[in-house]
Every structure is written in C-alpha cells, then in structure tokens.
C-alpha cells in the first residue's frame, strides 16, 4: 500500500483514538532525538541481517541511546538493532528465504491495542531468519521456490526454531506484555517486567515449532493452527481451529481509511523534530521533570496534563477537550485556560465539553 510522500498537514481524522495512540507511540520513540533522518548511513555493509522491502508510514531503526533513524526501502538492516514499524513494514531475510511483515491492528480486532511492532534481527547462517520479537504483530512467509525455510524465534528469553515447511506457508504472531491487575510492583525503583504473551497462528500451509524439549506440527485450519505461550508458565498450549478467525480478514473501508491516515501522519512526523516537539509540550504542561517516570505513578491531574500534551502533539486545527479540568488543581486549570486562549489566537477550533457552566462561559464564545 502506498503512502503520500509530501504530506503538508495531517488530516483532522487524526483525532480518533487509534490514530492518536499511534502518533504518541511514535513521539515516545523519538523523544530526546534531533529528527528521524532518512538515508542509509555511510559505511554500512552491503549484506546485513535483512533488507527493508517496503514501508507504509515509518520504520525506525534505533541508532543509539535516545536516537532513532527512519529507514528507507531497499536499505540493508544491521544486526542486533531494534526496528519499530508504524503501522507497517516488510523485511526480507538476508538470503531472501523469509519475508517478515511488521503490522498494526488498526481495526482493533485483537484484545490489546497494537499500533507499532518491533523486532531485532540477528545474523545466523544456520537459518533463513533469526529474530527477537519485541512487541506487536508480526507475519512470516516462506518465499523459497521450493523446500522449507527455517526461522529462529526469540521471545522473552526463550529461543525456538520454526520451520515453514513449504513455499507459501504463512504464519502470524502477536507478542504483548501486560502487568497483573492491582498496584504495580517495583524493584529497585523500577517496574518489574510485564508478563509476555505469545500467540502464533498458521494462516496458510504447515509448520513445525521446535521448543527444544517439545515440538508441535501445525497446519492452517482445519487443524492444529494456534500456539499460545506466556513467560510465567512457559508451557505452550496448542489449539485446533476449524476455520480462520474473523480477525484475519482484510481491512474494511473504515479500517483502510484509518490505516492511510496513520501512514500519512507517521511519515509526516518522521521528517520532523519530534523529540523537540514532545519535550516542548511536556514542559508546556509542567511535566518536563517527569518524562522518564512510569505513567502508572501519575496522579489524575498529571494524567490530564499528559493527555493535553498528547492532543497538541500534531498541532491539530481542531482540538476536542472533554471535561479537561477534571482532576486538575488551580495551577492546572489556569494552564488549560492559557492553552485554549493560545489555540484560539492561532485561529484553531476548540470544542470544550464541561458540566461546569462558569468554565464554559469564561472559555467559549459560541
């Protein structure tokens, strides 16, 4: 799918929840960097751990602590480096045997919001592709003309070998982390790692998953098509499906529109000084000294301030504020009034929803 290459301004529909989440994911990745610059670095070897085939939106390569670089199609990809796609990118293994697709769940079909996906590629001559699955939705396909393709999968400290048995075999995977319900547990002032869940679905063809002590033959429905594993029990569960789930269906028109909007905005932001913009907005809402603190430890008023910064991230023409003063102290309320006044002065439209009539009378002119 193609994306616009010279976007001047993101569409107003970017105010939808899914798109806002995606843009914040991108800005969080880019925070602290100058700008994400396209162009392959000089001195990079011709043969890396893989090659970028296509990008819809942006593919970011971690270039160092707090620094990210936008990757262009046809670039070779370095080993042992985190790659994050928003919302989609295609990567071929170094030998072309396996295609890896990083996906976004723009239709919110899964149980968790997934708008960016990440992997780390490794050099490994014994397999077609060696990858650590960091987060999100990932697809794999055997691109050989004949014979199987082998993949080394690494998830939450585990390492397995997946064999895509025949050409055209296609599997999809989701990796996500979640903390148990209740008060977050801290060790040494840091949050404990979340529980990692891994789900694999065979969409087409057949595969064999070798976990070391156990191995499972898998095939597309009808058959044993799903494997579920988590980092606590570390016990795989195989399930039979009679047909592919509805979540595998192509995007409908509404989802396709959201996908295009995310692509356009991600591409737009990738060429801008996103880190500086995020830092400026955090300072504007009084959170510049809390930028590395887990949100779970924020007060309600701090969460409201962060939400205001998120809403301003893409400099929208239309700003919708629903009960924005709830939880704010007097300083926070004055901050909100100033932001609304600045937006009005810049000839932007602000929709202000509140049950406090005094606030409405003070801030609204219609």
Radius of gyration: 22 Å
Distance between the termini: 42 Å
Query: Strand portion, in percent?
Result: 35-45%
Element pattern in H and E: HEEEEEEEEEEEEEEEEEHHHEHEH
Quick one: how many beta strands?
Answer: 19
Low-confidence stretches: 1-39
Largest sheet properties: 15 strands, mixed
Chain-averaged pLDDT: 79
Number of helices: 6
Structural shape? elongated
Helix content: 10-25%
**Broad structural category:** alpha+beta
Q: Tags for this entry?
A:
alpha+beta; 15-stranded mixed β-sheet; 366 residues; two-stranded antiparallel ribbon; 19 strands; 6 helices
What report would you give on this structure?
By secondary structure, the chain is an alpha+beta fold. Helix content is 22%, strand content 35%. The protein has six helices and 19 strands. The chain has helices spanning 17-30, 253-270, 274-284, 300-312, 330-345, 357-363, and strands at residues 50-64, 67-70, 76-77, 82-93, 98-103, 117-122, 129-142, 149-155, 158-164, 170-178, 186-187, 190-191, 195-204, 206-210, 215-219, 223-230, 237-241, 318-322, 349-353. The chain has a 15-stranded mixed beta sheet that branches. It has a two-stranded antiparallel ribbon with strand order 11-12. A hairpin with a 6-residue loop joins strand 16 and strand 17. Helix 1 packs parallel to helix 2 and helix 1 (17-30) packs across helix 3 (274-284). The longest helix is centred in the C-terminal third of the chain and has 18 residues, at 253-270. The two termini are 42 Å apart.
């Amino acid at each position: 799918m193609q994306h616009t290459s010279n976007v001047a301004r993101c569409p107003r529909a970017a105010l939808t929840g899914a798109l806002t989440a995606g843009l914040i994911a991108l800005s969080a990745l880019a925070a602290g960097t100058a700008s994400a610059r396209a162009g392959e670095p000089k001195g990079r070897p011709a043969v890396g751990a893989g090659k970028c085939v296509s990008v819809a939106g942006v593919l970011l390569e971690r270039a160092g602590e707090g620094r990210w670089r936008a990757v262009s199609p046809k670039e070779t990809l370095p080993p042992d480096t985190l790659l994050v796609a928003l919302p989609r990118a295609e990567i071929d293994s170094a030998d072309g045997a396996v295609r890896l697709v990083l996906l976004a769940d723009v239709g919110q079909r899964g149980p968790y919001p997934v708008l960016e996906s990440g992997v780390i590629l490794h050099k490994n001559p014994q397999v077609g592709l060696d990858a650590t699955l960091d987060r999100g939705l990932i697809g794999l396909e055997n691109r050989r003309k004949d014979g199987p393709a082998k993949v080394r999968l690494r998830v939450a400290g585990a390492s397995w070998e997946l064999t895509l048995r025949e050409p055209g075999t296609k599997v999809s995977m989701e990796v996500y982390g979640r903390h148990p319900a209740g008060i977050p547990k801290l060790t040494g002032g840091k949050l404990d790692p979340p529980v990692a869940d891994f789900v694999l679905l065979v969409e087409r063809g057949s595969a064999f998953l070798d976990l070391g002590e156990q191995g499972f033959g898998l095939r597309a429905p009808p058959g044993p098509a799903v494997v579920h594993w988590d980092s606590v029990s570390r016990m795989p569960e195989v399930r039979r499906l009679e047909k592919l789930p509805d979540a595998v269906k192509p995007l409908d028109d509404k989802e396709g529109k959201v996908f295009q909007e995310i692509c356009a905005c991600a591409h737009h932001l990738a060429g801008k000084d996103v880190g500086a913009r995020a830092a400026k907005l955090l300072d504007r809402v009084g959170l510049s000294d809390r930028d590395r603190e887990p949100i779970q430890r924020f007060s309600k008023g701090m969460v409201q301030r962060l939400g205001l910064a998120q809403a301003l991230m893409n400099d929208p023409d239309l700003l919708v504020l629903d009960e924005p003063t709830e939880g704010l102290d007097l300083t926070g309320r004055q901050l909100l009034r100033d932001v609304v006044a600045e937006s009005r002065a810049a000839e932007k439209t602000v929709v202000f929803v509140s049950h406090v009539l005094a606030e409405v009378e003070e801030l609204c002119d219609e």
